[in-house]
Amino acid sequence: MHEFKMNLVLMNLQLWLALCVATNSGAWFGTAVLVTNMRNFRLSRGTISGILKGYVGISASVYTLIYSLLLKGSASKLLLFLTIGVSTVCLVLMYFIRPCTPPSGEDSSVHVHFIFTQASSILLATYLVTTTILSDMISINDSVSYILVSIMIIFMITPLAIPLKMTIFPAIQKTNVPLVGSEVSVSTQASPLIASSSTSAAYVGSFHENEDTSSDVEILIAEGEGAVRKKRRPKRGDDFKFKEAIVKADFWLLWFAYSLGVGSGVTVVNNLAQIGISLGVEDTTILLSVFSFCNFIGRLGAGAVSEHFVRSKTLPRTFWMSITQVTMIIAFLLYASALDGTLYAATALLGMCYGVQYSIMVATVSELFGLKHFGVISSFMMLGNPIGALVFSVFLAGNLYDTEAAKQGNSTCYGANCFRVTFLVLAGVCGIGTILSIILTVRIRAVYQMLYASGSFCQSRRIFCQAQCLPSFCSNYSMTI
């Protein structure tokens, strides 16, 4: 008996170490890809975050299909595949995860490439959901399984057509043309959304916190002449260090709004199978597929939709966080009602809204606090997911579920009462998140008006935009003294 307990402890320790290494490795890899691409495509941050987070959302479906069709449900083969196959792919492709020259200005070809990638990812997600449902309903032989997995791989590598096309048919680079009649050299290349150094914008208004009465132009001129060496504190839109960002009200408003949104959502993710069983669904595969697909659509769509409105209406991205958290309240109330026909509708709504939170948070962090220390700031923001899972899933949902199951005298709980109180509490949590995200949206509206007015913004690297510089001029040219 003593030996059995020791073996059980060792097995649990091995499992804990494996999960620790795997989770941290995934976090490192995801951060590297996200930070690099946000810097490489800094003019399309919402679109980039939507695409990257969208592929993360459907990755579980990819592994599920491989596990069920190719590996025939073998756990040992799956572990071997994850150990050797995934590691090999990462080692081969990590060379391509590197900084590159950002696109200059609003390149129409870049927009077309994004649309192509989004379309291919939607086809992949649709194919995965359809194939997963079919494989669960009918028996598929080995030959058909290999064909289905091969088609999935083709959909996955379809975006590689973009670099191949750019290599075979390279675009003609535009040369810089000086502005006639001007004493300064004007570049036709648009500057990145937020430069790595501090930004000094004309007509910014009063949105800066604790802004000095003297203008940025006067300070920059004095610094250039050596009269002033005072280091200016970063303002919204500049590059913040983590210790500078963590003392800002905007930081904590975003953190709590995001944490309440994803924390309540991940509670349903962790308990979705038990939720389905408690409401009479014997096979929860289709329920999980619906959530996965809608989660992907939410991530991808949030990036594209927020990018459109932030450019056309200078609408802060957190506005969509508010909208989706209101929708999450409706979804939780549908769950709590346990009415016939509402389970799948509630799951679809919640999956979509849950995915929106990720894409919105990533892009918002980069715009408020810059890209220089984006990795550490965004990673701290993402702590809201595991903290929410611990508080709402373990302490709330888990305890209430076990209590109700004990009343029924079973280890498995059946009936609407298993999660009803949990859903009502989560609806209230999303209500608080909605209020916080609305407050944040109001606070940062002027920031987005500054960053995206006239289609772009006024900024400088080594230089500055002078007070008499027209906003429309600053939005299209970078001035070099």
UniProtKB/TrEMBL annotation:
Q: Which residues form the signal peptide?
A: 1-22
Q: How does it sit in the membrane?
A: Multi-pass membrane protein
Q: Does the keyword Membrane apply?
A: yes
Question: Which SUPFAM superfamilies does the record match to this protein?
Answer: MFS general substrate transporter (SSF103473)
Positions of the Nodulin-like domain: 13-164
* One Pfam family it belongs to: Nodulin-like
Give its localization. Membrane
Q: Which residues cross the membrane?
A: 15-35, 47-66, 78-97, 109-129, 144-164, 251-273, 285-306, 318-337, 343-365, 377-401, 421-442
- Keywords noted in UniProt: Membrane, Signal, Transmembrane, Transmembrane helix
Q: Which PANTHER family match?
A: MAJOR FACILITATOR SUPERFAMILY PROTEIN, UNCHARACTERIZED NODULIN-LIKE PROTEIN
Q: Which GO terms describe its cellular component?
A: membrane
The organism named in the record is Pisum sativum (Garden pea)
List, for all copies, the residue spans of the domain called NFD4 C-terminal. 245-448
Q: What's the name of the protein?
A: Nodulin-like protein
